[in-house]
Amino acid sequence: MPKKDVQSPILLPARMNLAEDVLTDLEIAVLEFPFAEIVADFRNSMEEVLSPNRKKKVWIPYRQLNNGLLACASTLTHGFEYFDTGNYRALAVGTVENPLRVPTPEQIHELVMIWAQEWTKQFDGKGKADQVNSVCDRFLQNMAIIPTNWNWQPITPKTLIQNINAEKGLGYQAIPSFLATLLHGKKCVIRSGQREQEIQWRKVQGDGSGRTGLFLVSQAFPALYTDDYGNEREGYFVYRLDFRVQTQAGRFNQNGKLKPWIFLHLSCQRYAHEPLIEMNYGRDISVLMGMNEERLSGYEVDSTLIRLTIENNGREDSNLWKFQLPNLLAAFKARPLETTDNIRRNPSRYGNLDNHSNWNRDEYYLVHAEGYKYEHENHKRGRGHSIKPGFSLQERGDIVAQVLELLDGVLISDNPMQSDIPAPSGQKTPLAMRDYEYISQLPSFTKQQKEKLTEKEIKQRVDNRRQERQTIIADAIERALQGKPIHIFLLWRERDTCDVTCETLRDAFLLNEGEDFPEHVKVSSIWINDPNLLKPLDTAGLTLKDRQEFDNQIRKQHQIKLDAWRNFLKHEVIALIDPTTKPYCFAIVEIGQTKKKGVHPKQSIYRVVREACVLEKIGSQMVQTVKPKSSDQQDESIDTSPSYSKKTEGRILNAVLDLTLRQVGALYGLPSEVYERAGIPKEIAQNLDVIALCRRKATQGQDNIHYALAVRLRANGAVDVLFPDRNYWIPYAQAGIELGNIFSRVRCDRNYKTVQLKGIELAKFAADVLTQVGDCPTIALIEADVWRNERGEENGGQAWFQLKNEYLFAKRNILDFQHVPGHACVYPRDHNQFRNLLGIIRFRTGDETTQYITNRQTWNENSPARDLIHLSGFYDTSIPELLHYFSIGRLPKTQKAQDTSTARELYMLDSQNDEYGVNIAFKHQHMLEILPFFVHPDFQKTEESLKSLCRVPHYLRISPAWSMGNIHSPYPMHLGKQLIKDHLCILGVEV
């Protein structure tokens, strides 16, 4: 019977063109901060005169100044934000309906002067008094002088449209702020069935330390519903709308400058209404504050909400307004803020959650974050927010349609993207694209087959399937280990942990009772005979408030515990390793319970165990102690085996699969088969290497950790790693030990330079990897983010600029490494070193790719929308010489609740057949932009050959250890990022 024609999916991106003539009524003004050099000189001088034992740099409290300014002048778009090396500026935008209203430079100078005075008070009693006082006096004298011609400078809006990067990229903040200002106070109506819902938009200033400008929120909406357990739940949420300016490589206007897209990003923001009793350690609390009367005489206010933060660091100043904001406002002689304690204890009292028209006080909205717990009479430890985040595609589409109607003539919608061929699915899916869930499936039998076959025949088929799949698993691991044996140790303290993990480990290899592990796999179970090994690090009664003493105690205890674990491993584990075969060694280690009341995360033994294992050349995977489900069994004569929750069994399975598959870099089949399905010619696919340049950035105390490496996936399934300071590849299974030792040496020496790669070092590493491509045909993968630009004064902003949108089109057939040490040249496409490099593929995702809706040609089309249930590819051919491909993962199995015929059409406040919109955590897969450049001439001949290159990383968004859906990055990049993440804990980074 012929198959029915399957309609290609339709994908409409939420990206818009900006009509060029609409900005004529826009007012833009900037005010430079003329004291930046004076402030920098003061900081440098103060560092010189402070006590010699003071190691920390003097911090310039610009964020305190900006929060203080905005707490008094909500008409500003943002305060004095960094925009170029050593320079800061404030921004204000206005429209006809919301005209520009800014404080005068004289008013601002008065506040800046007070801020400077408050800053100098921090240095009282530090260093030599006469020297400190001299530096402070000189600083204040210089700050008191108002520069001549210091005024707000108008910016011509047309300039920003013609060149989005003009005025140091001002358009990236000004245009979204303009659109938000246009919608401020406007209303729209969305309709779900017979129900209508009015939304009124309101500006919000500020979005964390990394972003500035305006976004929009709606009024608060209350939701009351009954959850899956019959409990009544209540909560508040708002619609949040962000406008984001983005560009696309090769998309230029008539002036030859990048033509901007406007992305519309809709999200759900939840407000607290019950007392907040548990926060996320080390993460500040966000509060949106609105003023309905002047905070400081002479400073105009409007209904814009301002984002402020509450400190949450476990120290003396924890749970207070951050940056000593109340002190600064008091010095301004401004009306004070409400206390943070009052807001946390009774958020419903201080926010106009029910939208009373006669509300005339300040408003404070405590913004919920995942992990917060709220006081509730039926939950002693508190409970999370009642409302689940996210919206159905249907609701997203209708709100975007209404916004476009309000901005008619301002924003022009893009067209739908074109759909690529379907990704492999069903019976013809290559084994390398399969996951454990598929491999572990037993054969199913129809009713007719069960009637026809004997029990013996059915058992035989099941056994045959299992044996076939056992071979697939064993071969996958052997390929990844390149023929070398593996020894897996299970280090356990509690019998339940041992039993569940042993059984799960056997399940991972599909072993029946009595069957042995494959010949090249050895498993040993070892009891942790010293309970002290599992105890948290001893703080000796010190707390986080003791700061340096606490950190010193943790460092001391870390070394003591590390020595104890290494001693245990040497006596109990190393002795069992066969020195003749020299296997790769891995351990699954029980570490007790990681979250205990009164135990600080820094006391965790997690990083101690990881470091001890790598120093003894053992890869590791930690598991928490397993506890059986409680039993009500009263009759002791009945022998009942313990049972475990699905959550516990799933947790152990994930740990086992991570160790046996991901940590060795295994795939169940040959990658070459995937490449052939992508359209790569067979003779190339069978030898194709895919090299991913991988990096991770994290913060450790006052230091930024930034590390990179390269991962190479070979056509035969072997995986290798290259480190920045090496010129040779090593097997992935060995790389964790090597990287762990690098990080361990850094921790001991407390010299972080080798793990703080700057932009130019990243560029050199990329150039080294690309110019050392071997004899096999190769595709290289790299993310745009950070590799293309690394902001920072000491770094000079140097990185691989060619990856930027503004340069990539013109340089698509060269590699520009003129500024890179050791290269200092431009490599042409026909250079002999690159004869085997088929192309480089640049990725972008996150804020740089847009939201979308499916099954609609236009936003106002009345068509049902559904999440994509298969890995799907789309492409944009609007730039003929530069193919833009977009990969979207399939809907994860964890999100199946949003894919019912009822749920797909639910709005947040809808309910139908006992399904409530607010009780479904809607999540939609993000786009991954895939852009090939420096493409081999053989693959530039047709659009199809270019798409075949793009399909390689698209199809590789799989991991055999992850059965829930597609991973964010292609497999080799995923392996590299996870490898770094695994070992960051050794440096004290909490990931």
Question: What does this protein structure show overall?
Answer:
- The strands form nine sheets. Strands 2, 9, 10, 11, 12, 13, 15, 16, 17 and 20 form a ten-stranded mixed sheet that branches.
- The chain contains 25 helices and 39 strands.
- The model is unreliable at 792-796 (pLDDT under 50).
- 42% of the residues are buried.
- The two termini are 53 Å apart.
- Helices cover 29% and strands 22% of the residues.
- Strand 35 (872-876) and strand 36 (884-888) form a beta hairpin.
- The chain is an alpha+beta fold.
Key structural traits:
alpha+beta; 10-stranded mixed sheet; 991 residues; single chain
Quick overview of this protein structure:
The protein contains 25 helices and 39 strands. 29% of the residues lie in helices and 22% in strands.
